[in-house]
Amino acid sequence: MAFRFKQFTVNDERSSMKVGTDAVLLGAWAGNRIPSTILDIGTGCGLIALMMAQRFNDARITAIDIHEGSVEQAGENFKASRWTDNLSAELISLQELASGRANAFDLIISNPPFFSDSLLPPDPSKKIARHTETLSFQELVEGVNNLLKPGGRFALILPMESHKAFSHHATKKGFLKCRELEIIPVKGKKPNRILSEWTREQEEAVFESLCIRKNTLEYTDEYKKLTEEFYLAL
What pLDDT is recorded for position 129? Predict the structure, then answer.
């Protein structure tokens, strides 16, 4: 399936994860400063990295994944985009990358594995993409801590309960939440996702919420405003 945004088309046929709302939300929201270097952890088909390239034209973006098919697909999507010179896809784990580099990125983003307590799926690629068996929250925080530049930020999206578990590890490592966006899937429903951005610097945190759909299931104006830069039609 191809996802057509204003500036590029994303092909996700061989990726371990299909393009979803979580990725679109994170790609549209993460980073409210101008980074020069960005790392996308668990890039899949490369959608979030491409969204970062569209938002931050001069940034150098490294996209990593441990699923070979995803890295190949991301690489193809990068080559087909207008930002191909700014994007690179690497078959490497966060743990390996963090052991060989330090203080390398202004902004790190991830739509990470989070179903740590659920039944493991039979499909190995889905297991890699959606379970913390290959990347625990503790390992995620430690890797980000090694790779993030002083003053840098880390942004991710998680379900409510997983966010609590991640926050425990992040604060224990000295990270402070500077931004949060609570996601309500449909008006009147309870929030089911949280986007959060973390830093090691002391600053006033901003807490907001966003509803994706009205009761009629039409997209809300606030969701359209956040994502309109990317969709051809919404």
Answer: 41
